[in-house]
Each structure stands twice: as C-alpha cells, then as structure tokens.
Write a structure and sequence with these properties.
The protein is of the alpha/beta class and 435 residues long. The protein has helices at residues 2-22, 31-57, 65-68, 71-106, 119-147, 153-160, 163-177, 186-207, 284-292, 329-340, 362-370, 408-420, and strands spanning 215-227, 230-236, 249-253, 261-264, 274-280, 298-305, 318-324, 348-354, 376-382, 400-405, 426-429. Helix 11 (362-370) links the parallel strand 8 (348-354) and strand 9. The protein binds flavin-adenine dinucleotide (FAD).
C-alpha cells in the first residue's frame, strides 16, 4: 500500500519538477510568488493523482488483487489514497489563500502575470474555480466523518456515495485550471492519464456497474445460531458460481436496503455452488441478522475476492496460523479443503484465541476438523482461563510464515513481540476493517 502511494507521489513530483525547472518567469517576479505558484501546482497534482487512484480502486479491480495483495488491501489503499488526496486538496486551498498574506507582506508588484483566456472558456474556468472550492469543503467534511469512527457506518456509506460526484467536480476544476503549458509537457500527459482513470472509476461508480460481472443471485438454504453471537448462513448460488479458493471473501447482500457486507466464505469449494458464512454480531446489522435472515430468502453474493489463500502458503516455511474470534473463518475454509486433500504436506500450528472456550462452538468444530489432519496442531487460547496468546508462545525455530486473521490489536502485539525477539517472519494479515 505504502509503496504504491509513494511511487505515485514520486512520479507526480518528478513530472512537476521537470515542468518547474523548464519554465521561466518574467523579469522582476518575486521568488515567493513563484514558490506559491509551484506549490499550488504540486499540491493540486498530488491531490488529483491520489484521488484518481482512490476512484480506480473503488471499482474493486480484481486484476489488481495479485500485485496489491488482495481486495482487503486494495480497500485500505483506496482509503489512504483518499485521505491523502483530500489532505493535499486542503493544502492546495491554503496555498491559494496565501495570496492575501503575500500581497500584504511583499506586495503585488512581483506577481506572476495571470494566464489570459476569453469568452466561454474563461467563464468555464471561473465556474471550475468556484465548484472546486465548494467540492473541497464537502470533501473535507466527508474526511472528518470518515475518520470519526463513531459516525454510524450505514449513514457514512450513503454519504460516501457522493464521492464520485465530488471527484468529477474536482477533475473538472483540475482540467480547466491546469496551466496552459502543461498540455505540451509530460505534466499534461500525466494529468490526462490520471483524470481518465479517475473519471472511469467515478462513472462506473455512478452507473452502479461495480462488481456486476462477479455478482450471483442465490438462495439462503439454512440459518443457524450455533455459537455465542455467531450466525451460520448457508447459501446456494447455483451453477453460475465459478467457485472460490479457501480463505476468500465475498460481499453479501441479504437485504437490498442494507446493501452488501463483506464476509469470509467459511467453507471449502465443493463445486456445488454452496457457500457458508459465519457471521458475528459486531454491529447494528449483524446483531439483527439472526432474525432478519431466513431460509428460502434471496441472497446476492459478489466475489470471490481476497488473497488469504492457502495455496499461497510456502510449504518450505514453518506455518503458524493464528485466528482471533470470528477471524477463524478463513481457517475453517482451509481446514475443510484439507479434508479433501489430507496428504497435503503443510505442517502448521493453528492458534485459536477465544474469550470463552466452554461456550464457543468453533472449538469442537476445529477439534473435529483437525483430528484427521496429523500435520496440523491445534492450540486453543482461552482468555477466560487466563491464556492470552503472546509471541513467545509461537514455535518459531526456523523460517516461518504467519497467517493472521483477527483483531488488529492482537496482530500488532504479536508482530511487535516477534520483532523484539529478533524473528523475521512473513506476516500475512487479513484486514477485516474497510473504513
Ligand atoms: C475481508 C473481510 C472479511 C470479513 N469476514 C467476516 C466474517 O467472516 N465474519 C464476520 O462476522 N465478519 C466479517 N467481517 C466483518 C464484517 O464485514 C462486519 O463486522 C460487518 O459488516 C459489520 O456490519 P454491522 O452493520 O453489523 O456493523 P456496524 O456497526 O455498522 O459497523 C461496524 C464496522 O464493520 C464494518 N462494516 C460495516 N458494514 C460494512 C460494509 N457494508 N462493508 C464493509 N465494512 C462494513 C466497518 O468497518 C464498520 O465500522 C469481514 C470484513 C472484511 C473486510
């Protein structure tokens, strides 16, 4: 995630630098006015570049899953590209506002001459300037409610739908107000590509065509509440479903008004269109789920997505699989698929962290699934009994690979613990939080 954003920012800065170095200012221009102008261009370019990336990633591009490490990571990159894009937009606005300060301190005399246009084009530029300013105020408000986690997710999701409109407004602003000489230089070429990418994402979002080709209609065939706060939902997706790899997830819509929620497919693929979800009551909707979803009702499933895929486990490395609470779902799919292929040579320690093993229906299920798999050792860590998993409890003697799905706090504690002990392990983590 960080690499992609850093590379994009570096390319934009380089191209801006080429333009800044090749340009010449009229004699007598004050260096501070030149610095303001260039800061305005750089912040504007960085902002539109990152927002364009965010728009592209919002289209859930499955072809980017492999290079970016899965759809959960694509969403995180989307989020951070959006946040940084808005931060640069705010900076762009502040630089624009510095006009008055400069006039007061160094005077107007050394200003750069304004580019002159006429007629309809000039009117469009004025409109783009005003619209850009208003779009910025709205997008800043969106940023505040995005970062304010207490703002209800459902309301946030509705408001978030305004983002493509805001992006298209900012794209219009950028295209109209980019300096004329950009269009004959690499900066203009880059800006055109970025705008084309972002507009593509924005329009797909507005037209509601995201994920369409991967969406399948099916039926809920069974609903069971089999563990504390966890509902199992079994769905039949028919022949259209092209199957999934163990550990992948899907966006599931049980109720059109509620919209899709991401859930891991907690079962292996048997080629029969059946998928299971284990859904924990973690919020408003999932708490209502046991009564809201019934066998026989329609369901829409978009997917599969994700790279938390057992096929990516390196059999040469010691496998340490760690799940916290409902984070066990991808491992259920892994273990189920291993039943079909018990000879698979993965040797793994599976650590399952639970609040109360005596009331947790996943525990007997895991014991049942692991029993025929001699090469998988199951460890249950029961918080109620004072057994909290720590890094030093992980048996890391040689090259190891950790696959983690669970609370972000537990992942951070384990990563830090392993680092402090001097272990260099590959740590794969499924991100359950998208906002
Ligand atoms: C890749 C992935 C796999 C997941 N797998 C499982 C699973 O197997 N079992 C399980 O119980 N949970 C899983 N989750 C978490 C699950 O999606 C949320 O707990 C659920 O959507 C909460 O909805 P809510 O309305 O009840 O909660 P709210 O209180 O409304 O939201 C709680 C949090 O859940 C997330 N969330 C809520 N709605 C959505 C949505 N429509 N899209 C994206 N995120 C949302 C947000 O981060 C939000 O802050 C997974 C999440 C991800 C990203």
């Amino acid at each position: 995630m960080k690499t992609l954003i850093a590379v994009l920012a570096a390319v934009v800065t380089l191209v801006w630098g080429l333009d800044a170095l090749s340009g010449s200012s009229p004699a007598g221009t004050h260096p501070l006015w030149i610095a303001r102008q260039e800061a305005l261009y750089l912040s504007g370019l960085l902002s539109i570049a990152l927002l364009s990336l965010a728009m592209l990633l919002a289209t859930r591009p499955a072809w980017l899953e492999s290079p970016l490490g899965g759809m959960d990571r694509i969403y995180r990159t989307h989020k951070w590209a959006g946040i940084l894009g808005i931060a640069f937009a705010a900076m762009h606005w502040l630089v624009e506002m510095s006009d008055d300060v400069l006039k007061a301190s160094i005077g107007r005399a050394g200003r750069l001459p304004k580019e002159k246009f006429s007629g309809l084009f000039e009117a469009m530029r004025d409109l783009a300037e005003d619209l850009g300013e208003w779009a910025l105020y709205v997008i800043l408000a969106m940023l505040v409610i995005t970062l304010w986690k207490k703002f209800p997710y459902r309301a946030w999701r509705y408001l978030h739908r305004a983002m493509p409109v805001l992006y298209l407004t900012l794209a219009f602003h950028a295209a109209m107000l980019a300096p004329r000489d950009y269009w004959t230089q690499p900066a203009g070429g880059l800006l055109a590509v970025l705008l084309a990418i972002g507009i593509y994402g924005g329009l797909r979002s507005l037209l509601g065509s995201i994920g369409g080709k991967r969406t399948f209609a099916g039926e809920v065939v069974a609903v069971r509440s089999n563990a504390v706060d966890v509902t199992s939902v079994r769905c039949q997706l028919g022949n259209g479903w092209r199957g999934h790899r163990p550990g992948q997830f899907a966006f599931v819509t049980f109720d059109e008004r509620e919209g899709p929620h991401p859930f891991t497919i907690a079962s292996a693929d048997h080629g029969d269109g059946i998928v299971n979800f284990e859904i924990k009551a973690l919020g408003d909707y999932t708490r209502r789920l046991p009564t809201a979803v019934q066998a026989g009702q329609a369901v829409r499933v978009e997917g599969p997505y994700g790279r938390f895929d057992m096929a990516r486990c390196n059999a040469q490395d010691r496998q340490i699989w760690i799940a916290g609470g409902v984070g066990i779902t991808p491992f259920l799919a892994w273990l189920e698929s291993l039943q079909q292929d018990p000879g698979k040579t993965l040797i793994a320690d599976l650590h399952y962290c639970t609040r109360d093993a005596s009331r947790d229906a996943f525990v007997p299920r895991l014991q049942g699934l692991c029993a025929p798999l001699a090469h998988i050792r199951l460890y249950v860590h029961d918080t109620r009994q004072g057994d909290t998993l720590k890094a030093d409890a992980l048996d890391i003697r040689r090259r190891a690979e950790v696959w983690f799905c669970g609370p972000a706090g537990l992942a951070a504690a384990l990563r830090n613990g392993l680092q402090a002990m001097g272990h260099k392990v590959r740590f794969h983590q499924e991100a359950f939080e998208m906002r």
